[in-house]
Each structure stands twice: as C-alpha cells, then as structure tokens.
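Give me the 3D structure for Pectate lyase.
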Amino acid sequence: MGPNAKVIPLGQMDGDAIRLVTARKVWIDHNTLYECQDGLLDVTRGSTNVTVSNNWFRNQDKVMLLGHDDGHLRDRNMMVTVIFNHFGPNCNQRMPRVRHGYAHVANNFYQGWEQYAIGGSMSPSIKSEANYFVAPNDVGNKEVTWRKGEKGLWKFYSVGDVLKNGASFNKQTGVGGAKPNYSQEQNFKVVNAMFVKELTSESGVLQCSRSLIC
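Predicted structure for Pectate lyase (214 residues):
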C-alpha cells in the first residue's frame, strides 16, 4: 500500500503478508496472520500514522518490522500504535522491531517468544505500556527486549507492563520518556494490563455471519 491509501505494484515481493510503503493514516485491524515466507507486517519507507490493532500473529519467525533499514532516515518521522494484539504461540522475534521512529505498544498479549519480543535499532523511541508478557520456559530467553547500538541512544520505556514466568524488561532509566505526539482526536485510554488477556481474546479475524453479529 502506498500514498493516499492506494494499492500500488511493487514488483517482486519479498513474502510479507502486509506491507506498507510511504503510506499514511492506515488502520490494520482484526487479521489473523501466520506462516509467511518473510514477515507478517512491514511498515516502511516513510509510512506513518499507522494503527495495528486486534490482530492475531502466530507461528512466525519475523513478525512485525517498523522502519525500512538503518539508512532510511525518512522513517524518523514514523509513528505507529500497536494495540490489543495477540502475539503467539510460536512467534520468534519482531513484535515489533523498530528502526528510527516511534512506536506505542500497548495492551498486547505476548504468549512467549524465542529470541525477543520488542526490539530496535537506530535510536527509536518505544513506549511499552500495560502489556501482558508471558516469558517462554527456556531460562535463557526471559528478556522482552533486544537493542542494537549505543546504550545511551536507547529510548525503551516500560509503563505498567505485567511480566509473567520470569519475564524481564531492560527499560530506560533517567529523565524523560517516550511520549506519543498524539493529537486530541488520536488520544486513547490504555487499560490496566491485568485485563489484556480478556481484551485480546477475540483478536484476529472476526467470526461474523448474517445470523451472528460481530
């Protein structure tokens, strides 16, 4: 998907389920995505104002990439909200992985991971808020985050997250924080993390029919 929400040909694809390129004001909601050749969702090349909500991501190595590559500086203006999603089972990494921009990751249910859940490079700002993290049983993979680059440039913040089964979040310390630059119309209330499993219980494709209202 490209500018003005138009579907554009991109030539040979790399196996992503959903890929946004230079797109703005996109809502990705109530999908069930799994077992794709590359990733399940890419938001790249200057895309911004994207909301990813109520999706079920499972059975995948690379789940969600926000930011094209280390050299694509347009992604510094990227702003993505990831909310009310269910990650797992059998997800390895990138839930999401962020380059350059800003991601507000809130009220998601993480049903384990293999390498990490939330990661980033090129000095992104990531606010993890009121998520429910259940670490895998493997004692070597309890850490939620993965970071690449100088420690002083990390901007990873955890606010009100629930960490279960030994999960840990190597969060930022010091003054300030990753603050969403939402407009008044974009503001939303984040729910206490203890309700996340219930909130995400119907993530994925809606089970609707003529006789069954969604």
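The chain is about 0% helix and 35% strand. Let me know if you want a second pass.
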